[in-house]
């Protein structure tokens, strides 16, 4: 039995929540995955996984064994990279997840720079707004806008994104164009709500260096960034979004910026990854490239008239 391979299979079963998913992820026959776990449990003399027809769960021994496996496998990967060509030309599968807008509008258009530099890295990119359980879902790194909420993850700041307040021309024709916060009486918002915790987001403005919240009525609430802007374009109210996500709509006149004198606060964009991936050469070079990308002049994270 290849113990390291068995440990890799075991950790993937835990992360993905099943034998079949782990087998598909590792591109192994399902019978081989089952056999490796049986051999590993026999070698250790303990049961690691509690199997039922509906779910897989860790035993007490399995829960103690899992974090040790994660550390050993990360150390093994890093050690091999130090003494091999992978130190300079890392290879293998890298799973990342990011908001759909960031991926579609900023990262993927620039991705040929990264893949030309690291041709042996295979990327699997998830594009969505939902929170991702990095350990359970086997994701190596995520990009997220807003303040990081999980202190157990390593956070690498990437950029402070310019935000703008927008509305559709039709909406402004019906409700008038606000120029100050006092003009917001009689206006409404498109509300964004989190599908994971139900938190609701209205409007925020920077006034005399302080963030001020403004509560307005709503008719429509959505839980995706694309749906948020679609509702705004349909005339349901004011929204606030990172500049990169509305740059094309502003240029084409489908949306109009308002309240330029009282901008929203900047939004941080952060790369997050589990502590055990900190030594991964693949993760490091990808995050370093993201930092480089975000620092490039003229990228769409900033307004075209911004000094930043």
TrEMBL record:
Record-level GO BP terms: DNA-templated transcription
Annotated ranges, domain HTH lysR-type: 1-59
Family annotation (InterPro entries): LysR-type_TF_proteobact-type, LysR_HTH_N, LysR_subst-bd, WH-like_DNA-bd_sf, WH_DNA-bd_sf
Keywords: DNA-binding, Transcription, Transcription regulation
Gene Ontology MF annotations: DNA-binding transcription factor activity; sequence-specific DNA binding
CDD domains with a match to the protein in the record: PBP2_CrgA_like_3
Pfam families reported in the protein's UniProt record: HTH_1, LysR_substrate
Family: Belongs to the LysR transcriptional regulatory family.
Protein name per its UniProtKB record: LysR family transcriptional regulator
């Amino acid at each position: 039995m290849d113990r390291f391979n068995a440990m890799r299979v075991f950790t993937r079963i835990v992360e993905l929540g099943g034998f079949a998913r782990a087998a598909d992820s590792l591109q192994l026959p399902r019978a081989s995955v089952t056999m490796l776990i049986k051999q590993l449990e026999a070698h250790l003399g303990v049961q690691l996984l509690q199997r039922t027809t509906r779910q897989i769960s860790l035993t007490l021994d399995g829960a103690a064994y899992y974090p040790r496996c994660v550390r050993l496998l990360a150390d093994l990967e890093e050690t091999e990279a130090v003494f091999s060509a992978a130190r300079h030309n890392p290879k293998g599968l890298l799973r990342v997840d990011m908001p759909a807008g960031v991926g579609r509008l900023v990262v993927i258009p620039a991705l040929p720079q990264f893949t030309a530099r690291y041709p042996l890295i295979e990327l699997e990119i998830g594009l969505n707004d939902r929170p991702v359980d990095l350990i359970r879902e086997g994701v190596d790194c995520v990009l997220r806008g807003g303040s990081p909420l999980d202190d157990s993850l390593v956070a690498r700041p990437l950029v402070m994104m310019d935000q703008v307040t927008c509305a559709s021309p039709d909406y402004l024709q019906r409700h008038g164009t606000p120029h100050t916060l006092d003009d917001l009486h009689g206006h409404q918002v498109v509300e964004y709500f989190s599908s994971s915790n139900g938190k609701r987001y209205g409007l925020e403005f920077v006034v005399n260096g302080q963030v001020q919240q403004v509560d307005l009525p709503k008719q429509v609430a959505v839980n995706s960034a694309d749906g948020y802007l679609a509702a705004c374009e349909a005339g349901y109210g004011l929204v606030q979004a990172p500049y990169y996500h509305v740059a094309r709509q502003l240029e084409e006149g489908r949306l109009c910026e308002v309240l330029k004198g009282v901008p929203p606060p900047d939004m941080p964009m952060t790369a997050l990854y589990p502590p055990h991936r900190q030594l991964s050469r693949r993760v490091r070079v990808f995050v370093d490239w993201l930092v480089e990308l975000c620092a490039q002049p003229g990228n769409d994270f900033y307004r075209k008239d911004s000094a930043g």
